[in-house]
Amino acid sequence: MSTRLKEGGRRIDRAKQVEFTFNGKRMSGFEGDTLAAALLANDQVMMGRSFKYHRPRGVVASGAEEPNALVNLGEGGKFEPNQRATTTEIFDGLTAASQNHWPSLDFDVGAINAKLSRFLPAGFYYKTFMFPRFAWKHLYEPIVRQSAGLGRVPKDRDADTYEHYYAFFDVVVIGGGVAGLMAAKSAGEAGAKVLLMEQTPHWGGRAPVDGGEVDGKPVEDFVAATVAALEAMGNVTLRTRMMGAGVYDHGYMLGYQRLRDHAPAAKGPRHRLWRIRAGRIVTATGAIERPLSFAGNDVPGVMLASAVRDYVVDYGVSPGDRVVVVTNNDDAYRTAIAVKAAGLSVPAILDARAGGGGALAEEAKAQGIRVLNGMGVAKVHGKKRVEGVAVCRQAGEGAVEEEIGCDVVAMSGGWSPVVHLWSHCGGKLVWNDKYAMFQPNPEASPTGADGEGFVLAAGVAAGAQTDTDFEGLGLYETLRTAVRAGTQAAAELGFKTRDVALPTVSEHDEVAMEPVWLMPQGAGAKLRMKAWLDYQNDVKVSDVQLAAREGYESVEHTKRYTTLGMATDQGKLSNINGLATLANALGEAIPQVGTTTFRPPYTPISMGAIAGEARAETFQPLRRTPMHDWHEENGAHWEPVGQWRRPYCYPRKGESHAAAVAREVMATRDSLGLLDASTLGKLVVKGPDAGKFLDMLYTNMMSTLKPGRCRYGLMCSENGFLIDDGVVARIDEDTFLCHTTTGGAERIHAHMEEWLQTEWWDWQVYVANVTEQYAQIAVVGPNARKVLEKLTDEDISAESLPFMAWKDVTLDGVNSRVYRISFSGELSYEIAVPASVGRAFWGRLLQAGEEYGVTPYGTEALHVMRAEKGFIMIGDETDGTVIPQDLGLNWAISKKKDDYLGKRAQARSFMDNPDRWQLVGLETVDGSALPDGAYAVAEGTNANGQRNVQGRVTSTYFSPTLGKGIAMGLVHKGPDRMGEVLDFPGTDGKTYKAKIVDPVFYDRDGEKQNV
Amino acid sequence: MLILDCPYCGVTAEETEFHGGGEAHLKRFGPGSSDEDFEGYLFHRENPRGVHFERWRHVNGCGKWFHVARDTATLEVFGSYSAQVTEPPQEIRDAITAKRPGWRWREFA
Amino acid sequence: MSEAVSALAGAGFDGIARVEEAGQVGMVTLRGDLDSAAMVKAVKTATDAAVPGQRAITRAGGYAVAWMSPDELLITCDHDKADAVVNSLAKSLAGAQFLAVNVSDARAVFDVSGAQARDVLAKLMPVDFSRAAFGPDIIRRSRLAQVPAAVWMSADDTFRVVCFRSVARYLFDVLCMAAQDGSEVGVLG
């Protein structure tokens, strides 16, 4: 059984007991435990089931690379699936549940898949669900959906908050093991501003577990002294629980800090995503131990040798009473020695190397541990728990020479440097044949903005160096390469560095490892089918070999076909073994097969951390006018227009939106309406060349506009298409004020600046965006003038302020600019007042208009009224393919100008041509409203067998003024076809018949607006 | 994510402060130009693997447009310079030549 | 009618830093040839301050002049003085090509203050707020979360943040979130 040892556990505080639940069962651990350690301490070896076959799985690793021990954590707004038990720190009240099983972890229906595994080979999905086609939707998909997927999807809104943090450092060191500490110290002592991050809560990495001495003292003391030295340095920032998630272009990198996962009751954000710009990045990310591929290597109790050692030394937890070690390298002997030292039994060490190990092997033997050289595991006995191993010769085919009873198998297939962060941004790898691993090629580091490499690897993450007498992955070599990387990083940034004296180190000499990609070497099909490469995705040696036989040569294709190295662990344990297996099957060398692409993040990060502050109310900026609060208080139904919110209508209690719109239209047409028009863009254009400039921007002639007057203008892109419209007012000889559409202010401002800065930079024009300086209110209706006259003694008569003129007027003591323009066809004034008094002024207008039944109206009433007048709306009548000529706006295109933006484009043969869809009014035969966007069908069908079309509806409303549906649309040669009736099939199955009419439905002569 | 120098502000800032504006040094063809010239102006763009000249705007900053010489494959930035020129200035060309001898881009080298 | 109000009527929040809407602030956008003698004189006349160099900010009395771009300055003053500044500039610069416009009401202004202010802003802006990089005499225009913003130091440990008025609520909300209790970063503070 697995249990807590009486003594030991560097990371736990036995004085502090922590209560938690697993699958509803109450358990306890100690402060400092990971969930995996605490589960093992409670004899919970089985922690989940596998994704595909639902095989029982136990914890394999002790860190971020764990593929099996994934749990659903928390409840409600704190629920999160797929959390690794090995990186989850326990706290009082933690609730965890295992995944991929039903109804329970112990008894799982899905485990039937394992019995069917013969029928679920590599590429199973691609092969099986192809035919018959109809079966996918009704049969396969529902089944697959039910059984697929890791974990559960959260149902509640995330209750936590998250944030970003922009940071700037000279040198960022990723990994707080002895290499990272030493690299940070070297760079820091040179004066560089350094950030050192460590993904676990602890400094020092594996070194204190692995043993050895630095300067005559235990490694632990060296770690403590180095951390203390770093903490004393003002230019060094240290963070634990922070993972280097990704390295990107130009020295950008992400650090994922888990602030509250271990203490969720504390105030503050749960995670912080550091968005870091670094001069140099040092990857001191260590190495990950590889599993060995033998039959039954996924039975709970088979673990990485280093993990077994970690649980014993770091957490005082025994994963089992009898531990068989199987290895191809010297490091795993440390596990045997540590396990033995903890008072547990090590029946045997199986060393696949015929020549066996070095000094560590001698030490193990000296402690009475039986060492069998040239031997391996033929098969693991047990289903939900290891019961024993069958021992065979590594060189053979699996003939069993001996049976050994045990409840843990500690395996080691050698080590792979963690090269992910080195590789994220294009760092290249080389294959180290002697150590059977890919390692960073320092000649091919990722390059930054200046073209220089900006990533350096340190410690075992750099692989085994050949330029040294200390070749290998030992402690001295780790410190040596770390000092070198830290010093070099600082020196490359121009810091003055000096030689750093390396501490003295005492450690065991190690004999080289020997690659073992399959155990035993000649394992037959039956064994290979039980030899797992990828635990998380249930990929076996036989699956990769099958893929190779089926013609998959590229490692990227094989990954996707077999699912090797996919999902949450991204193959941290399986990749090298998988591609070695593929290489062997293809008869190629491993470096020729290469690795799959390493992509960020290194381990999964929370969606909340990615979003940062951009969620809920602040998901995106919401723009509010000065009168926003009034609209809200008065029941506005909102319409998003770009990032603005505009009132769509103001429904009264019990009133439908349609009824509210009709009421607002009629009140405005009959008496007086108010519209918040503050969102319209307002751009001041000033300078001696302002007129010339606007002549280029608008299709109209603006330079001839008289001060005091307004003109409606159209803007086109260089491609000839309409991009914006609005009223231009000439303020004085040099100054114009250009109104844009609501969504257009920033866009058109940028458009103007672009042409001024990049084409006509010698023109004397300045532009300023004053959109938000003003609250703009449209006062509309037959009583509009009367209400304004109540607020001023100045002359605003038709003679003094005629249609399409503007005037500065003091209204109720407020400096106002009054534009007499109309988008409704009524007598109408748009009044601009400083935004700071907008809300108050709106109130004054409501008060003054009370006797006229003043009615605030929303965007829909505005739309109805403009459609009744046949006014176009950018975005309705235009869609980026419409030119002004299509909309009957020839009157707004100056014939006198040599040039304007879009003029050349509009001269192209397919534009300068009546054979186009053009604007008309549409009136249904029965008076109903046409469906929006409906197409008018024509005779015949197109190449796809669809009905030909000859036009479409661009705007459609029920007109309360006229008591019938009105619409505008673009129809092929429409203006020449007045009176024709077209068919518009709706999506409701009905066909609407509509007659082509003039687009101006109301007050064709403009008498109402010009009074 | 790139970092660029704005030649107007003098700040080195991350890409989110900027907005890319496509190819640099286009010559405008207006009314009276041939169909070929106009088509080239409006639609034809370089798409090199290597040295490229682009327009960027410091949109969340001073608002100014500027030019950047950059390697599209390695993302190395050779320099940024004024938008108010019709061809890359000599010092930018020299900086590119130092790193990419023999480079060519449109009619420039 | 004197019911002028700022966007959020001086809303405030206390967390690891204090976030407070600064109320109404006078602001004038001035565009022109910043190197010209006329400009130097006009700015001096209107504000008593010098024309600032690139990304600098100059101050005199209740006025501050901030460099916005090679041809644009932002003058801040009391809210009721902005029109006078515009008029003064117009008078001084008559005949020159320039643009001066009152933009006081187009903006919202926030003060973020306290020992943690630098870290709070660094959560939202891709800007180096370290003491070495960000001192009292500079203005930085950048992005704050998803909107453009300008920031400078108005006092020790106090940063003044300016954005468009329409996004005042958004800016306040994200600043408050960044200043929430328990969110200390401990790098710049």
Automatic annotation (TrEMBL), chain A:
Keyword Cell wall biogenesis/degradation applies: no
NCBIfam families registered for this protein in UniProt: soxA
Residues annotated as domain Aminomethyltransferase C-terminal: 918-1003
This protein's UniProt keywords: Oxidoreductase
GO MF annotation: an example: sarcosine oxidase activity
Record organism: Marimonas arenosa
TM stretches of this protein: none
SUPFAM superfamilies to which the protein is assigned, alphabetical: Aminomethyltransferase beta-barrel domain (SSF101790), FAD/NAD(P)-binding domain (SSF51905), Folate-binding domain (SSF103025)
Record-level GO BP terms: tetrahydrofolate metabolic process
Pfam families named among the record's database cross-references: FAD_oxidored, Fer2_4, GCV_T, GCV_T_C, SO_alpha_A3
Record flagged with keyword rRNA processing: no
Family to which the UniProt record says this protein belongs: Belongs to the GcvT family.
Residue ranges annotated for the GCVT N-terminal domain, each copy included: 627-897
Official protein name in the record: Sarcosine oxidase subunit alpha family protein
Signal sequence range: none
Highest taxon of the lineage: Bacteria
Domain SoxA A3 positions: 530-612
TrEMBL record, chain B:
Positions in coiled-coil regions: none
Alphabetized GO MF terms: sarcosine oxidase activity
Record InterPro entries: SoxD (IPR006279), SoxD_sf (IPR038561)
GO process terms (BP): tetrahydrofolate metabolic process
Protein name (Swiss-Prot/TrEMBL): Sarcosine oxidase subunit delta
Automatic annotation (TrEMBL), chain C:
InterPro entries found in the cross-reference section: SoxG, TrmE/GcvT-like
A Pfam family assignment: SoxG
Annotated protein name in UniProt: Sarcosine oxidase subunit gamma
Organism of this sequence: Marimonas arenosa
